[in-house]
Amino acid sequence: MKYIYSILLFGGMVLMTGLSCLSSKKAHSELSEEEVVIPPQSIVPDTFVLPQMPVTIKDTDERAKYLVMHYWDRFDFTDRSLIWRPEITEQAFVDYINILGYVPKKDSDASLSYTLRKAQIDTVMLVHFMELFEKYLYDPNSPFRNEEYYLSVLGEATKSPQLTDEIRSRYGFQFEMGMKNRLGEKANDFSYTVSSGESFRLYDLKSEYTLLMFIDPDCSTCAAVTQHLDKSKELNSALALNSPTRTMLTVLALYPDKNLDEWTARISDIPARWIYAYDKTAEIIGKKLYDIRAYPTLYLLDKDKKVILKDTSVELIESFFSLHH
């Protein structure tokens, strides 16, 4: 897709680090501003054309903001044949999601809402774009997953008269669950029970950080993540700082259900320094306290139980402790 890559050079900086091909064999530094400006033209079939960048916009940040707000200006939302051309539409969509990371949240939110409003010109295209947003921003296995972006999309979709009541209801539920335990907010409290039969509450933990790990005893991925974290240099360094007078890190591996037989069968697989517990009251699932769409689901909380990382990855957890300790 040669038409995409050159336009993503803002003042010599490549906005799309995930792209490996350029439209020219020239080095980045050799591409001038004139080369990244596409001449004015109407919507072009069988290709994706980026907006013309005004030559008067010189600031890199402003160029990024202009691009995300005008990204779809030359895309024909009434041409349903483009739905079946993933090399055009879906590839452009993936590039768009990447570029959003280069602008402040208020600008990415505005761009996402604007994109959905443009897609509403055709119901079939709107449904297709919502499917793309769900696939890339919401699916637990997507490397582009971003709940904050997706919440902006859902806020627009739940108001769309073009979508059926059933579809709006589904997106409404996703929005409701996504609004829980947001970054910077206090995580929902709950009780948990350990092997002695004693029950405690999340908020009773006195720890600088709490790694909350929702697991399923029969989940092979949970077992692999457990083994990885058990050997993690970053986590073990934080755990090593625990003392009788101060707890730096608590790892709470929690089975959010009350099937004691399944839970007991895996006690020996959990590192001794962790807390291994289950939800005896089944309130986490029953009251929908957390949006657990896949196992394991990881949260990192601070001493006040505010969410630092939500539904995050092992790599981001290790990176956090590498930078902070």
Protein described:
- The chain has 325 residues and is an alpha/beta fold.
- The chain folds into two domains: 2-178, no CATH class; 191-324, Glutaredoxin, CATH 3.40.30.10.
- It contains twelve helices and nine strands.
- It has a five-stranded mixed beta sheet.
- A hairpin with a 2-residue loop joins strand 1 (9-10) and strand 2 (13-14).
- The longest helix is centred in the middle third of the chain and has 16 residues, at 123-138.
- Mean pLDDT is 87; it is low at 1-41.
In spatial order, strands of the major sheet run: 7-6-5-8-9
Radius of gyration from CA coordinates: 23 Å
Distinct helical segment count: 12
Structural class: alpha/beta
N-to-C order of helices and strands: HEEHHHHHHEEEHHEHEHEEH
Percent of residues in helices comes to 25-40%
Question: What form results from the Cα inertia axes?
Answer: elongated
Query: What is the residue-averaged pLDDT?
Result: 87
Biggest sheet architecture: 5 strands, mixed
Please provide the count of β strands: 9
How many domain modules?
2
The low-confidence runs, each spanning 5 or more residues with pLDDT under 50, are 1-41
End-to-end Cα distance: 43 Å
What percent of residues are in strands? 5-15%
